[in-house]
Design the sequence.
Protein backbone atom coordinates (compact mmCIF):
# COMPACT_ATOMS: atom_id res chain seq x y z
CA UNK A 1 0.00 0.00 0.00
CA UNK A 2 1.44 3.33 -0.96
CA UNK A 3 1.91 5.96 1.70
CA UNK A 4 3.17 9.47 1.99
CA UNK A 5 4.80 11.39 4.81
CA UNK A 6 4.46 15.04 5.65
CA UNK A 7 7.31 16.79 7.47
CA UNK A 8 6.54 19.63 9.86
CA UNK A 9 8.84 21.99 11.69
CA UNK A 10 7.40 23.15 14.98
CA UNK A 11 9.51 26.04 16.08
CA UNK A 12 8.73 29.18 18.01
CA UNK A 13 9.64 31.31 20.99
CA UNK A 14 7.18 29.32 23.11
CA UNK A 15 5.45 25.97 22.78
CA UNK A 16 3.30 24.09 25.24
CA UNK A 17 2.08 20.54 24.72
CA UNK A 18 -0.22 19.67 27.57
CA UNK A 19 -1.29 16.07 28.05
CA UNK A 20 -4.11 14.52 30.07
CA UNK A 21 -2.29 15.42 33.27
CA UNK A 22 -2.06 19.13 32.59
CA UNK A 23 -5.44 20.31 33.74
CA UNK A 24 -6.71 22.80 36.28
CA UNK A 25 -4.21 25.19 37.79
CA UNK A 26 -0.91 23.47 37.10
CA UNK A 27 -0.46 23.09 33.38
CA UNK A 28 2.75 21.38 32.48
CA UNK A 29 4.09 20.76 29.01
CA UNK A 30 5.34 17.51 27.55
CA UNK A 31 8.89 17.49 26.31
CA UNK A 32 7.60 16.64 22.81
CA UNK A 33 4.54 17.68 20.78
CA UNK A 34 1.51 15.53 21.61
CA UNK A 35 -0.56 13.82 18.95
CA UNK A 36 -3.66 15.65 20.12
CA UNK A 37 -1.84 19.01 19.87
CA UNK A 38 -0.56 18.27 16.37
CA UNK A 39 -3.93 16.96 15.12
CA UNK A 40 -5.57 20.05 16.64
CA UNK A 41 -3.16 22.20 14.66
CA UNK A 42 -4.11 20.33 11.47
CA UNK A 43 -7.81 20.86 12.20
CA UNK A 44 -7.15 24.60 12.57
CA UNK A 45 -5.35 24.58 9.21
CA UNK A 46 -8.33 22.79 7.64
CA UNK A 47 -10.81 25.11 9.35
CA UNK A 48 -12.57 22.18 11.03
CA UNK A 49 -14.53 22.95 14.21
CA UNK A 50 -14.22 20.83 17.34
CA UNK A 51 -17.63 19.32 16.71
CA UNK A 52 -16.93 18.51 13.07
CA UNK A 53 -13.51 17.13 13.98
CA UNK A 54 -14.99 14.46 16.22
CA UNK A 55 -17.26 12.94 13.58
CA UNK A 56 -15.54 13.62 10.27
CA UNK A 57 -11.84 14.14 10.81
CA UNK A 58 -10.39 12.67 13.99
CA UNK A 59 -11.16 9.04 13.03
CA UNK A 60 -8.92 9.32 9.94
CA UNK A 61 -6.36 11.72 11.46
CA UNK A 62 -5.84 9.35 14.41
CA UNK A 63 -4.82 6.70 11.89
CA UNK A 64 -1.78 8.74 10.85
CA UNK A 65 1.49 7.45 12.26
CA UNK A 66 3.40 10.15 14.04
CA UNK A 67 7.06 10.63 14.94
CA UNK A 68 8.86 13.57 16.55
CA UNK A 69 12.49 14.52 16.79
CA UNK A 70 13.68 17.16 19.24
CA UNK A 71 16.16 19.14 17.18
CA UNK A 72 16.23 21.69 19.98
CA UNK A 73 14.60 20.50 23.19
CA UNK A 74 14.15 24.07 24.46
CA UNK A 75 14.27 25.40 27.97
CA UNK A 76 11.39 24.88 30.39
CA UNK A 77 9.92 28.06 31.84
CA UNK A 78 6.94 28.72 34.10
CA UNK A 79 4.58 31.59 33.50
CA UNK A 80 2.71 33.33 36.29
CA UNK A 81 -0.79 33.59 34.93
CA UNK A 82 -3.99 34.92 36.50
CA UNK A 83 -7.53 34.19 35.42
CA UNK A 84 -10.82 35.93 36.03
CA UNK A 85 -9.91 39.00 38.11
CA UNK A 86 -13.17 40.66 39.26
CA UNK A 87 -15.19 38.26 37.14
CA UNK A 88 -16.64 36.47 40.18
CA UNK A 89 -15.71 32.93 39.28
CA UNK A 90 -17.89 30.21 40.78
CA UNK A 91 -16.43 28.24 43.63
CA UNK A 92 -17.10 24.64 44.55
CA UNK A 93 -19.13 25.71 47.61
CA UNK A 94 -21.58 27.67 45.44
CA UNK A 95 -20.21 31.07 46.40
CA UNK A 96 -18.17 33.21 44.08
CA UNK A 97 -14.70 34.68 44.28
CA UNK A 98 -13.61 38.11 43.08
CA UNK A 99 -9.86 37.64 43.53
CA UNK A 100 -8.06 36.19 40.53
CA UNK A 101 -7.14 32.55 40.27
CA UNK A 102 -3.43 31.95 39.84
CA UNK A 103 -2.53 29.23 37.36
CA UNK A 104 0.96 28.01 36.57
CA UNK A 105 1.67 27.39 32.93
CA UNK A 106 4.77 25.72 31.67
CA UNK A 107 6.36 26.38 28.29
CA UNK A 108 9.24 25.12 26.19
CA UNK A 109 11.24 28.16 25.26
CA UNK A 110 13.08 28.26 21.90
CA UNK A 111 12.44 24.61 21.07
CA UNK A 112 12.36 23.10 17.59
CA UNK A 113 10.82 19.80 16.58
CA UNK A 114 10.71 17.83 13.41
CA UNK A 115 7.35 16.05 13.25
CA UNK A 116 6.42 13.37 10.72
CA UNK A 117 2.93 12.17 9.91
CA UNK A 118 2.55 9.16 7.66
CA UNK A 119 -0.63 7.97 5.97
CA UNK A 120 -2.64 7.73 2.78
CA UNK A 121 -1.37 9.96 -0.06
CA UNK A 122 -4.77 11.65 -0.49
CA UNK A 123 -5.00 12.67 3.16
CA UNK A 124 -1.36 13.79 3.32
CA UNK A 125 -1.79 15.97 0.21
CA UNK A 126 -4.92 17.49 1.69
CA UNK A 127 -3.09 18.34 4.93
CA UNK A 128 -0.12 19.82 3.07
CA UNK A 129 -2.45 22.06 1.12
CA UNK A 130 -4.21 23.17 4.30
CA UNK A 131 -0.89 23.98 5.99
CA UNK A 132 0.17 26.00 2.95
CA UNK A 133 -2.97 28.07 3.31
CA UNK A 134 -4.41 27.63 6.80
CA UNK A 135 -8.02 28.66 7.40
CA UNK A 136 -7.47 29.57 11.06
CA UNK A 137 -4.29 30.77 12.81
CA UNK A 138 -1.89 27.99 13.75
CA UNK A 139 -0.26 27.74 17.16
CA UNK A 140 2.12 25.42 18.94
CA UNK A 141 -0.01 23.80 21.60
CA UNK A 142 -1.44 26.95 23.14
CA UNK A 143 -2.92 30.01 21.48
CA UNK A 144 -0.20 32.35 22.73
CA UNK A 145 2.49 30.24 21.00
CA UNK A 146 2.68 31.29 17.34
CA UNK A 147 5.14 29.45 15.11
CA UNK A 148 8.18 31.47 14.08
CA UNK A 149 8.58 29.81 10.69
CA UNK A 150 6.35 28.04 8.17
CA UNK A 151 5.20 24.73 9.64
CA UNK A 152 5.18 22.72 6.43
CA UNK A 153 8.76 21.56 5.85
CA UNK A 154 8.20 19.08 3.05
CA UNK A 155 6.41 16.01 1.83
CA UNK A 156 7.79 12.69 0.63
CA UNK A 157 6.30 9.70 -1.11
CA UNK A 158 9.26 7.50 -0.18
CA UNK A 159 8.07 4.18 1.22
CA UNK A 160 10.59 4.40 4.07
CA UNK A 161 9.43 3.92 7.66
CA UNK A 162 9.31 6.77 10.15
CA UNK A 163 12.58 5.91 11.86
CA UNK A 164 14.47 5.86 8.54
CA UNK A 165 12.99 9.22 7.58
CA UNK A 166 13.94 10.70 10.96
CA UNK A 167 17.46 9.45 10.33
CA UNK A 168 17.66 10.80 6.83
CA UNK A 169 16.70 14.41 7.56
CA UNK A 170 19.93 16.17 8.56
CA UNK A 171 20.10 18.26 11.71
CA UNK A 172 20.79 21.83 10.72
CA UNK A 173 22.68 24.43 12.71
CA UNK A 174 20.75 27.65 13.21
CA UNK A 175 23.80 29.82 13.05
CA UNK A 176 27.11 29.12 11.37
CA UNK A 177 29.50 27.17 13.57
CA UNK A 178 26.79 25.99 16.01
CA UNK A 179 27.89 22.73 17.59
CA UNK A 180 25.67 19.77 16.77
CA UNK A 181 24.36 17.70 19.70
CA UNK A 182 25.77 14.18 19.80
CA UNK A 183 22.31 12.59 19.52
CA UNK A 184 18.69 13.61 19.02
CA UNK A 185 15.86 12.35 21.19
CA UNK A 186 12.91 10.99 19.20
CA UNK A 187 9.53 9.46 19.87
CA UNK A 188 7.59 7.43 17.35
CA UNK A 189 4.54 5.27 17.09
CA UNK A 190 5.12 1.62 17.84
CA UNK A 191 5.89 -0.68 14.97
CA UNK A 192 7.29 -4.22 15.06
CA UNK A 193 9.78 -3.20 12.37
CA UNK A 194 11.77 -1.24 14.98
CA UNK A 195 11.97 -4.04 17.54
CA UNK A 196 15.66 -4.79 17.07
CA UNK A 197 16.83 -1.28 16.32
CA UNK A 198 19.71 -0.41 18.67
CA UNK A 199 18.59 3.24 18.91
CA UNK A 200 15.27 2.39 20.61
CA UNK A 201 15.74 2.50 24.38
CA UNK A 202 12.23 2.56 25.87
CA UNK A 203 8.53 2.29 25.20
CA UNK A 204 5.67 3.96 27.03
CA UNK A 205 1.90 4.23 26.83
CA UNK A 206 0.66 7.76 26.29
CA UNK A 207 -2.89 9.03 26.29
CA UNK A 208 -2.82 11.66 23.60
CA UNK A 209 -4.64 10.25 20.58
CA UNK A 210 -7.71 12.51 20.44
CA UNK A 211 -11.20 11.05 20.14
CA UNK A 212 -12.89 14.38 20.82
CA UNK A 213 -11.76 17.95 21.44
CA UNK A 214 -15.08 19.30 22.67
CA UNK A 215 -15.17 17.11 25.77
CA UNK A 216 -11.49 16.17 25.73
CA UNK A 217 -11.17 12.44 25.39
CA UNK A 218 -8.10 10.51 24.35
CA UNK A 219 -7.12 7.00 23.35
CA UNK A 220 -3.90 5.38 24.44
CA UNK A 221 -1.06 4.60 22.05
CA UNK A 222 2.31 2.94 22.46
CA UNK A 223 5.25 5.19 21.81
CA UNK A 224 8.85 4.17 21.32
CA UNK A 225 11.70 6.39 22.42
CA UNK A 226 14.89 6.57 20.43
CA UNK A 227 18.20 8.41 20.53
CA UNK A 228 19.60 8.97 17.06
CA UNK A 229 23.27 9.82 16.69
CA UNK A 230 23.73 13.02 14.71
CA UNK A 231 25.66 12.62 11.48
CA UNK A 232 25.29 8.84 11.33
CA UNK A 233 23.99 8.31 7.83
CA UNK A 234 22.54 4.86 8.19
CA UNK A 235 19.12 5.80 6.92
CA UNK A 236 17.73 5.78 3.42
CA UNK A 237 18.59 8.70 1.21
CA UNK A 238 15.51 10.84 1.02
CA UNK A 239 14.60 13.64 -1.27
CA UNK A 240 12.54 15.98 0.84
CA UNK A 241 11.65 18.60 -1.62
CA UNK A 242 9.70 21.53 -0.34
CA UNK A 243 6.26 21.92 -1.86
CA UNK A 244 6.07 24.14 -4.85
CA UNK A 245 4.18 27.21 -3.88
CA UNK A 246 1.32 27.31 -6.33
CA UNK A 247 -0.51 30.14 -4.63
CA UNK A 248 0.70 33.48 -5.98
CA UNK A 249 1.70 36.01 -3.35
CA UNK A 250 -0.86 38.77 -2.74
CA UNK A 251 -0.51 41.66 -5.18
CA UNK A 252 1.78 44.39 -3.97
CA UNK A 253 1.28 48.01 -4.78
CA UNK A 254 3.74 49.10 -7.43
CA UNK A 255 5.16 52.48 -8.08
CA UNK A 256 5.30 51.91 -11.81
CA UNK A 257 2.27 53.60 -13.31
CA UNK A 258 3.45 53.73 -16.90
CA UNK A 259 0.82 51.21 -17.89
CA UNK A 260 -1.76 52.62 -20.26
CA UNK A 261 -4.73 51.02 -18.44
CA UNK A 262 -3.86 52.91 -15.30
CA UNK A 263 -3.49 56.15 -17.26
CA UNK A 264 -6.86 55.54 -18.87
CA UNK A 265 -8.53 54.84 -15.51
CA UNK A 266 -6.94 57.97 -14.07
CA UNK A 267 -8.18 60.20 -16.92
CA UNK A 268 -11.68 58.72 -16.65
CA UNK A 269 -11.75 59.25 -12.91
CA UNK A 270 -10.58 62.85 -13.13
CA UNK A 271 -13.25 63.50 -15.77
CA UNK A 272 -16.04 61.99 -13.69
CA UNK A 273 -14.93 64.04 -10.66
CA UNK A 274 -14.89 67.19 -12.87
CA UNK A 275 -11.22 67.72 -12.04
CA UNK A 276 -12.06 68.53 -8.43
CA UNK A 277 -10.84 66.99 -5.17
CA UNK A 278 -13.64 64.72 -3.94
CA UNK A 279 -12.99 65.89 -0.38
CA UNK A 280 -12.44 69.66 -0.45
CA UNK A 281 -13.54 70.52 -4.00
CA UNK A 282 -10.36 72.44 -4.82
CA UNK A 283 -8.55 71.62 -8.07
CA UNK A 284 -7.41 68.01 -8.08
CA UNK A 285 -3.86 67.31 -9.10
CA UNK A 286 -3.70 63.57 -8.60
CA UNK A 287 -5.75 60.48 -7.91
CA UNK A 288 -5.77 58.46 -4.70
CA UNK A 289 -6.15 54.67 -4.60
CA UNK A 290 -9.05 53.50 -2.43
CA UNK A 291 -8.06 49.92 -3.21
CA UNK A 292 -4.71 48.38 -4.09
CA UNK A 293 -6.23 45.14 -5.31
CA UNK A 294 -5.60 46.04 -8.95
CA UNK A 295 -2.74 48.47 -8.34
CA UNK A 296 0.13 48.54 -10.78
CA UNK A 297 -1.75 48.77 -14.08
CA UNK A 298 -5.03 46.85 -13.69
CA UNK A 299 -6.94 49.70 -12.03
CA UNK A 300 -10.51 50.56 -12.86
CA UNK A 301 -11.84 54.12 -12.26
CA UNK A 302 -13.70 52.81 -9.18
CA UNK A 303 -10.35 52.13 -7.46
CA UNK A 304 -9.40 55.81 -7.69
CA UNK A 305 -10.59 59.20 -6.38
CA UNK A 306 -9.46 62.61 -7.61
CA UNK A 307 -7.76 64.57 -4.83
CA UNK A 308 -5.75 67.73 -4.25
CA UNK A 309 -2.20 67.55 -2.94
CA UNK A 310 -3.15 68.47 0.63
CA UNK A 311 -5.93 65.88 0.92
CA UNK A 312 -3.70 63.27 -0.71
CA UNK A 313 -0.98 63.87 1.91
CA UNK A 314 -3.57 63.71 4.70
CA UNK A 315 -4.94 60.40 3.38
CA UNK A 316 -1.45 58.93 3.09
CA UNK A 317 -0.67 59.94 6.68
CA UNK A 318 -3.82 58.21 7.92
CA UNK A 319 -3.04 55.09 5.92
CA UNK A 320 0.46 54.87 7.35
CA UNK A 321 -0.94 55.39 10.84
CA UNK A 322 -3.42 52.53 10.61
CA UNK A 323 -1.13 50.25 8.58
CA UNK A 324 -3.58 50.04 5.66
CA UNK A 325 -2.83 47.27 3.18
CA UNK A 326 -5.04 46.47 0.19
CA UNK A 327 -8.06 48.47 1.28
CA UNK A 328 -7.12 52.12 1.55
CA UNK A 329 -8.86 55.12 3.05
CA UNK A 330 -11.77 56.36 0.95
CA UNK A 331 -12.04 60.18 1.25
CA UNK A 332 -15.76 59.94 0.43
CA UNK A 333 -16.46 57.69 3.38
CA UNK A 334 -17.96 59.93 6.13
CA UNK A 335 -16.24 57.99 8.94
CA UNK A 336 -12.86 59.40 7.83
CA UNK A 337 -14.10 63.01 7.54
CA UNK A 338 -12.99 64.33 10.92
CA UNK A 339 -9.63 62.59 10.78
CA UNK A 340 -8.90 63.92 7.28
CA UNK A 341 -9.73 67.46 8.44
CA UNK A 342 -7.46 67.00 11.47
CA UNK A 343 -4.56 65.68 9.38
CA UNK A 344 -4.98 68.51 6.83
CA UNK A 345 -4.67 71.00 9.69
CA UNK A 346 -1.59 69.22 11.06
CA UNK A 347 0.07 69.38 7.64
CA UNK A 348 -0.79 73.07 7.21
CA UNK A 349 0.56 73.85 10.69
CA UNK A 350 3.76 71.93 9.95
CA UNK A 351 4.20 73.67 6.62
CA UNK A 352 3.76 77.11 8.15
CA UNK A 353 6.26 76.25 10.90
CA UNK A 354 8.73 75.17 8.25
CA UNK A 355 8.14 78.38 6.29
CA UNK A 356 8.65 80.47 9.46
CA UNK A 357 11.83 78.58 10.28
CA UNK A 358 13.19 79.09 6.79
CA UNK A 359 12.35 82.79 6.89
CA UNK A 360 14.04 83.10 10.28
CA UNK A 361 17.24 81.34 9.17
CA UNK A 362 17.35 83.48 6.04
CA UNK A 363 16.95 86.62 8.16
CA UNK A 364 19.75 85.47 10.49
CA UNK A 365 22.16 84.73 7.66
CA UNK A 366 21.66 88.15 6.09
ZN1 LIG B 1 -8.65 68.25 -1.25
Sequence:
Amino acid sequence: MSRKTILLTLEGHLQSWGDHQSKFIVRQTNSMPTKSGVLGLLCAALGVSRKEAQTNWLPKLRGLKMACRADRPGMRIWDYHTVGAKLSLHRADGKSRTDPLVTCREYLCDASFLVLLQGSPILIDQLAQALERPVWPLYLGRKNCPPSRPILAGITDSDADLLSILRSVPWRPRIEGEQAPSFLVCSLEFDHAYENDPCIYASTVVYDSPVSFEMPSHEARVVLHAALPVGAENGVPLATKPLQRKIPPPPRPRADYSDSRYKEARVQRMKSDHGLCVFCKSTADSVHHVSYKRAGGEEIPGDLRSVCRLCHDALTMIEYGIGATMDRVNPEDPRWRDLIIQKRQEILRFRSLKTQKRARSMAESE
Observations:
- Confidence is low (pLDDT under 50) at residues 233-245.
- The first strand starts at residue 4 and ends at 15.
- The CA atoms of residues 293 and 326 lie 6 Å apart.
- The radius of gyration is 29 Å.
